[in-house]
Amino acid sequence: MMYRRLRISAAALILAGMTSCLALTAHAQSTTSNMEGLKLSNDQPIQIQSDQLEIKDQEKKAFFTGNVQVVQGTTTMKAGKMTVLYKGEGASVTSGSADIDKIYLDDTVFLSSGTQQATAEKGEFNMATQTFVLEGKQVVLSQGPNVFKGCKLTVLMETGQAKLDACGGRVEIMLDPKSRPKQ
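Below the sequence we write its predicted structure tokens.
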């Protein structure tokens, strides 16, 4: 197990500050990291686009399907489908009064902020536990030339604690020593 400082921002995986200790390890079964800053911003507007939106207020669900794109600040998330579960008496997505409980992403998930990106087959945000999970045959995190590969990434948004699992295989890490910050 290795500990590594990574950065996550707004609903996107933001990798930053790769250290030389990871450059010594190319493969591992899992990597645990401290990822700072994954905070869902309540003070910035969110723009959501999709081919279709179906709202079921009685069930407290909203289904965004087809070319879903979510933009908040400099962060962009794309997926084939996004299901939003919300709670609260009289809550409605259309009025903006919905208290989001969980967000499910399916059909190829792409998160981007600046030079930092993550891809997976599916994802889940659990607002109650402040947990974000990306899963798939291959979850890829990258910042410029630095790449982390596994099949499940779990991030505790409140603390920044993150774990990348290989699910039976090995976690792969490729770091470019030229990308390290100048000291």
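The two ends are 26 Å apart (CA to CA).
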